[in-house]
Write a structure and sequence with these properties.
Helices cover 30% and strands 24% of the residues. It has 11 helices and 18 strands. Strand 6 and strand 7 form a beta hairpin. Helix 5 runs antiparallel to helix 7.
Length: 334
């Protein structure tokens, strides 16, 4: 919402009102799909207490809140912590539904796998050969397992993300064609990822999807694989509709999900490409952006308030501040 400023001279203090934009209609959110790294988690890879409280309140409303992440399901549970896991399991009869590995494995409301997609063997060999050619570290995901040829400094980068620790398998020849692989991921310094991203895009064109959530990791998904596709399968499994979906994210791998959802909200720290397609932009992940979005789109409608109401009122209390120029500042929405 744009704000037009009109100034007139008066002999008094300046009165400033902060006006926040609000949805043009009352949102009717029944489901929330929330990214994890860069969204639910802050930059320290932890959950802000305000975000935790808002998620618990959202579940208490009967709204179906699930994670939609590039991580494995175990990696997500390790990241969100025991309190959120406890409330998720309580809401879903002991199960943890959601969209994991960027939509390549989807668990329904009863904990069953409702969708799964793996990388074809021929594509896997192209990826492995390119990694060997470029000298880049490569890992592959098999549900909640992460496989690698050997440990190195790059595989150690996964530790802060609380994923299951990679398992060395010797050579890729030992698993390709024998173990289902859901996705591959190149690990390298940011400069190398930038340098080789184009080559990898060309190699996979028409055969697999290349995406990034983190600058020093390049993910390869099976053709047509995406969080958006996974979210669609999740909703289809119980008759859910995109018209009632709030999607929260921050990165390139959230694009399809963001475009599909009626209420697509990008974090304040989101990539420019995501902010471009989002219907709204909330605060950053270090400012409890998920809590702000849940309060605005879910908790208000259910007469709950997960955070201090003073943070979210449409027009905050007027603040009286000293005026050196004796000007009155009037804000009008346009």
């Amino acid at each position: 919402m744009a704000v037009k400023v009109k100034r007139t001279t008066i002999e008094s203090a300046t009165i400033v009102k902060k006006v926040r934009s609000v949805p043009q209609h009352r949102p009717h959110v029944k489901y929330v799909t929330c990214d994890v790294d860069g969204t639910l988690l802050n930059s320290k890879h932890s959950v802000d207490p305000r975000v935790e409280e808002a998620i618990i309140d959202t579940l208490a409303c009967g709204v179906k809140f699930v994670c939609a992440s590039g991580k494995s399901r175990q990696g997500v549970l390790n990241s969100v912590g025991p309190t959120i896991e406890e409330h998720l399991r309580k809401a879903y009869g002991g199960q943890v539904p959601g969209i994991f590995l960027n939509g390549l494995i989807v668990y329904g409301l009863n904990g069953e796998i409702v969708y799964e997609k793996t990388v074809p063997e021929s594509t896997s060999w192209k990826i492995v050969n390119k990694a060997r050619e470029l000298g880049m570290t490569l890992v592959a995901y098999n549900e909640d397992r992460i496989l690698c040829e050997k440990f190195d400094a790059e595989t150690e980068k996964l530790r802060p993300y609380k994923e299951p620790h990679p398992e060395p398998i010797g050579k890729w020849e030992n698993v390709i064609g024998k173990v289902p692989l859901h996705k591959f991921m190149f690990l390298a310094p940011v400069e190398e990822c930038r340098k080789y991203r184009g080559e990898i895009d060309i190699l996979m064109e028409g055969e697999a999807k290349v995406t990034q959530a983190i600058p020093d990791m390049i993910e390869i998904l099976p053709g047509q694989g995406s969080k958006g596709a996974g979210v669609e399968m999740f909703l289809d499994s119980f008759g859910g509709k995109f018209d009632n979906l709030l999607a929260l994210g921050d990165a390139e791998n959230d694009l399809e999900m963001m475009e599909m959802a009626r209420y697509g909200v990008a974090m304040g720290n989101a990539m420019a490409c995501l902010k471009k397609v989002a219907k709204d932009v909330t605060k950053t992940n270090d400012e409890a952006g998920v809590a702000h979005a849940l309060n605005r789109y879910v908790l208000r409608s259910h007469s709950l308030n997960g955070l201090s109401s003073s943070l979210y009122s449409r027009v905050e209390q007027a603040q009286i501040v000293p005026s050196q120029k004796n000007e009155k500042v009037e804000l009008a929405t346009v």
